[in-house]
Amino acid sequence: MTNELGTLGVWAHESALDAKLARELESLGYGAIWIGGSPNGRLEAVDTLLDATERIVVATGIVNMWADDAATVARSYHRVVARHPGRFLLGVGIGHREHTQTYQKPYEKIVEYLDQLDEAGVPVEDRVLAALGPKVLKLAAERAAGAHPYLVTPEHTRMARDILGEGKLLAPEHKVVLSEDPEKARAIARPRVQNPYLGLANYVSNLRRIGWSEEDLADGGSDALVDALVLHGSGAVIADGIRAHLEAGADHVCVQALGPDPRAAYRAISEGLLS
């Protein structure tokens, strides 16, 4: 699936995606649309976007293993690929401890879920894992096409590539704000970083792992942290930040535009990277 995704995709909450936006993103040259917000295992949103387009890949970023059993997801996978072969990538993960009462033995849950997907005939090459830490990144290399890390920087991408090795898909998400005013950009970005991510143990642990201090993580995040996690500037400046992921070893970067006009950001970024 790596080659079919291209180098640039869009990550957006399911509620922000529709057929019109999907067609525009395809016309701009984006290779994939990642459906965020834990789309349900029936994958109706995947059908909608694929039916509206001709070439672009649709991926889930991610289906929550605690919310939807593997059998349901596998049936949906087979339905989707029968209608749109080669255009769907199943992203799965375990979500957040703070949001799941049954969140116990998460690593064992991932392994069990992947075993069940194997039994149901979901190919390794058509699935990716949400992965941040070394243990799950190694599992992604062994049991999936690769990894889809969220809320990361190029420093994490470099670490992840070292763990995954060559030949495995690495598709990090990165948030952006199309604004050349740093204060305005941070006013949009900081609330989206602080709530919920700086209150979730897996993201905070990962940021510590790649070198951010307790001071950076406090009070909604330092300017340096917010700027690293949410690129801002012109389309060209943001494009340079995305290239940093590619240079660090990413195959594909999923851009999530924040602010009142995400479409403008997607157009500007496509001009900087895809034209």
TrEMBL record:
Cross-referenced InterPro entries: Bact_Lucif_Oxidored, Lucif-like_OxRdatse_MSMEG_4141, Luciferase-like_dom, Luciferase-like_sf
- Annotated GO MF terms: oxidoreductase activity, acting on paired donors, with incorporation or reduction of molecular oxygen
GO CC terms of this entry: cytosol
Domain called Luciferase-like: residue spans = 20-117
Task: List the Gene3D superfamilies.
Answer: Luciferase-like domain (3.20.20.30)
Record protein name field = LLM class F420-dependent oxidoreductase
